[in-house]
Design goal:
single chain; 357 residues; alpha+beta; 9 helices; 27% helix
């Protein structure tokens, strides 16, 4: 008797995946992106989050009270905060709003992490909360419109350890601003958001040494993908995403589902001669607790490369096999959501699974 495990498992697994991957998003919010990779996924996500409710530039001050407030009521400033210690100073909403400044700690203002000159001060980008943060005015001024990057020999260092200096990332040697490690992932996912929200809408943007239109250049993309994996999504980002959704009525998909970055630009995107074939592979059991059985079409190539990625897009294992129906031991994986990718010759098959204990 032939059993179509895919038909049996598809509905409950996708329901569980939706709950894990986008716990705060409305049901079905990302459904149009299911099964896509590369440019197709980028376009689908753009269609989902485009045409957001735009607020005025002045309204940002009020919005910050909801999107960037610490538990003690002070401003959550990523350029002065020290997550593992005590910041040198803190800001009070409204009272410490810039104004003029002469040094760190004087006041906070509106930092376009994606500098507004790069998009010609246009709307709705100029007031899009997803890339605008309340930050120390003096540090913001030091950052200016320099790209983000990594610095070995700093020309200037802020009180929380952010640096300004020549870039040490391969592919660029100009002056860059390096935030502290704890906020590199936040800013990487901010740039990924800009790359899909304004995908196809960035004609005429000035751009910079870091981006062409809204799209990161090669050196920057490599760095941002690393930042996103090294600094996973925090509760701060989750809360901020939910707060902005209430104001702008769109979300940052890379906070809800970090794997999207790798599925668009990284090793899980469909590029070159590799063909993505979402419908061609069946895996079971799913959810799984100790092993996965992988069933491929009868005409698949004999040499298989099996890769498993966690929910943050990090590769957890690679297995090479010639088994016709591989049985993959996953007993050591932690509970959560994973993506299985099998490359067979010039075809690539992708499926999601849930690990339970």
């Amino acid at each position: 008797m032939s059993v179509n495990f895919r038909k049996i498992l598809l509905i409950p697994v996708w329901s569980l995946v939706a709950a894990i991957a986008a716990a705060q998003a409305p049901a079905g919010y990302y459904d149009p992106a299911n099964g896509l990779t590369g440019k197709a996924l980028q376009q689908a996500l753009h269609n989902i989050i485009a045409n957001h409710t735009s607020i005025t530039y002045d309204a940002l001050w009020t919005a910050f009270k909801k999107t960037d407030k610490k538990s003690d009521g002070t401003v959550w400033d990523i350029y002065s905060d020290i997550p593992s210690g005590t910041p040198a100073y803190s800001f009070t909403f409204v009272t410490d709003q810039c104004g003029n400044y002469n040094s760190e700690g004087d006041c906070y203002n509106r930092e376009h992490s994606f500098p507004k000159s790069w998009f010609n001060d246009g709307s709705p980008m100029i007031s899009d909360l997803f890339h605008i943060y309340p930050t120390d005015g003096y540090v913001n001024g030091k950052r200016s419109n320099y790209p983000f990057g990594e610095v070995n020999k700093a020309n200037w260092t802020s009180l929380n350890g952010s640096k300004l200096g020549p870039c040490s990332v391969s592919g660029y040697t100009g002056i860059v601003f390096e935030p502290i490690d704890e906020y590199k992932g936040d800013l990487a996912r901010t740039y990924f958001y800009m790359a899909i929200r304004y995908y196809g809408e960035d004609s005429g943007w000035q751009g910079s040494d870091m981006v062409t239109g809204s799209q990161p250049k090669a050196w920057a993309l490599t760095m941002l993908l690393k930042w996103s994996k090294d600094d996973p999504v925090s509760q701060k980002e989750i809360n901020r995403n939910d707060s902005i959704y209430k104001i702008q009525h769109n979300r940052n998909p890379f906070i809800d589902y970090p794997l999207y970055a790798d599925m668009i630009w990284g090793s899980m995107s469909s590029t070159g001669d590799v063909i993505s074939d979402e419908e061609g592979m069946t895996i079971y059991p799913n959810p799984a607790s100790s092993y996965l059985t992988i069933v491929l079409p009868d005409d698949h190539a004999s040499d298989l490369v099996i890769q498993v990625y966690d929910s943050n897009g990090c590769l957890t294992r690679t297995v090479t096999t010639e088994e016709d129906t591989p049985h993959l031991d996953i007993s050591d994986l932690k509970p959560g959501f994973y993506l299985l990718q099998v490359t067979a010759g010039k075809k690539r098959y992708t499926e999601r699974f849930v690990m339970v204990k």
